Structure formats: structure tokens, C-alpha cells
Amino acid sequence: MKEILLITDQYKLRKRETSIVLTTLLGEEVQEVAMGMIDSISVFGNVQLSTQLLKSLSKEGIEVYFFSKSGGYLAHVESSYKDNSVAQRHQARATDDFYYCLAMSKKIISAKIRHSKELLLSYNEDGLLDEEDFQVFEQSLVQIEEAKTISEVLGFEGKCAKSYFYYLGFLVPNEFRFKGRSKRPPKDLFNAFISFGYANLYKYLVGAIRRHGLLPSFGIVHQDKPAHASLASDLMEEWRSILVDDVVMRLLREEVITKEDYTVNENGGIYLENRLRTVFLQRLSQRMNEAHPYLFSDKKRYDFFYAVDQQVNALKRSFEEKDVELFHTIGEGKDEVV
What does pTM read for this prediction? Predict the structure, then answer.
């Protein structure tokens, strides 16, 4: 399937029979794509879409995601035909079960910590980090296994995440050094990139969850919040370092970045300009399409999209049986994923 990414507000979309046509504001045709080749459409900024097109996309089951110009997720349009009330009842019962959620939380967060450590190891070529620096990850895994509540699990994860971003700040090129996680607004280029990337990852996972008829708002690890897809945030956890953080590390090492590529607003927030957002999304798309040994007990390599589809399908079965062992984290049982 193909996805259209609309980066600027210099375009508009319209329908032509069974195709979608992308034009400039002056009407110059840029691209035409058959609807059957499209999985979803992501709109950044004030791109114009006709009502006729939105109706057709909804009938075809093609989701449209709206982002602010800086990449913040705003809303989406989807078809209601994918709802599965039986699967949602199983989901509701499972996510209301304290012991099921605690066990699943331990599984998901432990996987996130292992992947975070793996990413640090892969970029520690110069030996800036030593064995003692990595002890916090091993200690957190032990503490999480012994945790009695989800709040305790998240507390240990938060301590580990603080160390992860602190150490990661030493592994980027000198001109991009940072001192930890910052958001709303991001205070440096690394954080600007990952905030933008996480918003896109969140959107992909919301779509995958809905395609299987589940409710993105009924989560396991994260608490319910209005207008928040808690289950998408849960599934995001282990993919953050595998996909987004890795893409950003590669990009900062390989891409020539100038002061024209980002802006600093009055409160010190860093915002990516058009070219850099486009480059990042291209890199993220390439990474998502790379094949890796993501799946449990399967030696074959698959891309992100197939792996997520299988993961959500397994989660659906896990909800139905209320069995934690039916759900497998990415790369479970393998020494490394990438």
C-alpha cells in the first residue's frame, strides 16, 4: 500500500473518478494516485481537501490524519465500518483486569527498556559509555519484575528513561548535544525530531488498532485521558527507540543541517522547517519499510507495517483469552532486533 504525506499548505487534493489528484493552489497537477493504492493520508498544515473526496475516502476505508504544521497530531477522519463490538467487549474486560494489566505492563515496559539499551550499545562505538552506565537498565528490569502496581512499573521506567536520554545526548555529533528529554516545546533539534516522529508513530498505531476493530482509547499501561489513544501509547513504547530514535541518530550523523532548517521561537522552542520535516519523513518511511526479525519464533524478516499488524492481531487474541502469553513484544526471545 502507498501513503501520501502532504508536508506543506501549498497543495490541495481533489477526487477524479477512482483516483486522488494532488495540485498546487494554482491548479497545476502534481500527482495522481488510484485510491486502491493508498493506505492513509497525512495532512500537515492547511492543505485543502474537498468534501467529496473525504466522503469517498471514508467509504473506501482510507483514513485521513491531520497534523499541525510543526507535526502535532490534531485529529483524523475514518470509516465506522471497522468497529467490532465483540472484540471491544473482550478488550474492555481485559483492560479492567488489574492483574492482566500489571503483567502486560511489565512485558511492554521491559521490552522498551531492552530496546533502549540496545540502541545505546549500537551507537556507543567510541566507548563513551561503560558497563557501569548500563547497570541502570538491568536494575530497572529486575525492579519492574518485582513491582506490585502499574504505577511502580512506570516509576522505574521513568528513572530508566531519564538515564537513556541523558546518555543518548553524549552519542550524537557534538553540535547536536542535548541534556535530556524536553517537549512542549522541544528545546533542541534531537527533541524536535523525536517529538515529530512520535506523533507520526502514534498515528500509525491508532490506525492499526482501529483496523482490527479495537478501541485505541482503552489502554493497558497508560491511564485513560480525554481525546487520548492510550492503547496506541502503550504499543508505541517499544517502537520509540527501534524506529524514531534510531532514524534521528542516523539523520544527525549523515544529514547536512543549516540554521535555515529550523526556527527558535520566543520561548526557546525548536521547530523543524519544511525541508527537514520532509527529509525526516522520508527517512522514517524507509526505516519502516526495512525488513527485520521483529516477530517471535519467526526467523524471517518483516517490515514495520506487517509486524504491527501481527502484533495487534495477537493483542486481540490476548484480550479475548485474557492471556498475557498470547501477546509477544517485538524481537521477544532474540538477542537483537536491528
Answer: 0.84
- Report which listed range, 2-11, 41-50, 172-181, is most confident: 172-181
157 belongs to an annotated ligand binding site? yes
Q: Domains in the chain, start-ordered, CATH in brackets?
A: 2-82 (3.100.10.20), 85-326 (1.20.120.920)
Give the DSSP H or E segment for 106: helix 98-122
The annotation status of 175 as a binding-site residue, yes or no, is: no
Query: How is residue 130 annotated by DSSP?
Result: -
| Strand 19-24, strand 29-34: pairing | antiparallel
Contacts of 40 (CB under 8 A, 6+ apart): 3, 62, 63, 64, 65, 207
Strands of 38-44's sheet, edge to edge?
2-6, 38-44, 63-67, 73-77
SS3 content of the chain, % helix, strand, coil (to 5): 55, 15, 30
Average confidence (pLDDT) over 142-166: 96
Instruction: Spell out the alpha helix ranges (H) of 174-333.
Output: 189-211, 230-239, 246-254, 274-289, 304-321
Kindly report, residue by residue over 271-304, the tens digit of the pLDDT. Answer: 888 888 888 988 998 899 898 888 877 778 888 9
Q: Is 336 annotated as a binding residue?
A: no
